[in-house]
């Protein structure tokens, strides 16, 4: 790549038709750069190149795919500090989290490197004599990947790695807020010995490049992570073309804090799950449903924990909560705090913009108490360092509140009771349930996804990703008698 050539299309780095400015949300005077935006023609060029490259990649075989994915993963892990710094600078998560994210992205690639070797099918007896049946997984073809800014390297990694592992070509449109992380990941992938056009990075706005990509009949499958609103539009576009689609969207993850829990552990897990990553996680704990007998004690300790977090520049030593990603996200967050208060919630701490040495989008983590589950702050995903306390008089009521949501991504319970924990695992309508753990924080080798408005289509990650990135073919063979 040369400077100002940020698009990787048909095996070449290219300039776009315009650029967008990328600034550090921890320090608005820090200009990271201007990033190219692709034209409609460039997007089409990427799709055509992907179509040509895909069969070549599939034919190259499992050892080749294994080696390429392993090399990408190994390099990501080795460069976690450097790439983590790019993430911290442009997205605003503390440096340690940026490093951790990059390392995790590497693990997705090394995991799927090994998965290349496990692409095994089934053999079946036929009900008709003299016929053999085998069932194999084949690539779906050209996969469009649309990813968000909150995990700008890990989220695309958990999509690109299985897409390539199972023999597909990729056209990736990352979020326009985090182009530098996208270019860093793309440089590693593009440097590998892969057919030109197998992997394409197409930067551009969601409304233009994103929309055109998901509406294209040249796409065989779409994997999206982002907001529910955009997800609905993508689902409609996919259905119109009969394109396979998989989506992971928002949530209002509940955490039940029961009267028999380890209170210190509950406070630590709830605070980390609510405010880690500045609350900008689809797995953030945003509804804390607390048993009334321990509610006030828990609230007091949670407020102390929230106030103790060090909010500041993502690259500064000791920072635990970085800035909010953008001005519009910050304005939305502050509006949610006001909305909560207007609907009758009590603001126990935070919820305001805070000043630091550098001009950035800093916000003090907020705890809203006395909330009801029907309030806006408990219905809509805020993606903010804001959490809401809801009182419940017993476990059954707490579970019923937790399940009263259009979403169902992750859910947690803090309890020492085996029967409550077991009942919760079985009866909480969510894709991931956590017992005595935060709602955020998942492994890379097992499925991830949710129910209701949180997810659509088959699961991501682990072996389950094969369902989306492959198409199953059943072959019937009548060999006949030898001459
Ligand atoms: P979006 O859903 O708008 O963006 C996610 C991705 O989709 C980005 O790459 C975006 O591009 C792209 N996109 C936007 N519009 C279209 C479109 N019409 N067709 C195709 N692609 C499109 O989320 P935002 O980044 O705007 O965040 C808004 C809210 O979404 C957050 O406050 C949060 O509630 C939720 N969100 C949830 C995430 C999750 O992990 N569940 C992740 C991110 C956001 P571009 O960035 O260029 O607009």
TrEMBL record:
Superkingdom of the organism of origin: Bacteria
One Pfam family it belongs to: Aldedh
The Aldehyde dehydrogenase domain, residue ranges: 18-474
GO MF terms held by the record: oxidoreductase activity, acting on the aldehyde or oxo group of donors, NAD or NADP as acceptor
Keywords: Oxidoreductase
Family matches, as Gene3D superfamilies: Aldehyde Dehydrogenase, Chain A, domain 1 (3.40.605.10), Aldehyde Dehydrogenase, Chain A, domain 2 (3.40.309.10)
Family (UniProt): Belongs to the aldehyde dehydrogenase family.
Protein name: Aldehyde dehydrogenase (NAD+)
Source organism of the structure: Gemmobacter caeni
Taxonomic lineage: Bacteria, Pseudomonadati, Pseudomonadota, Alphaproteobacteria, Rhodobacterales
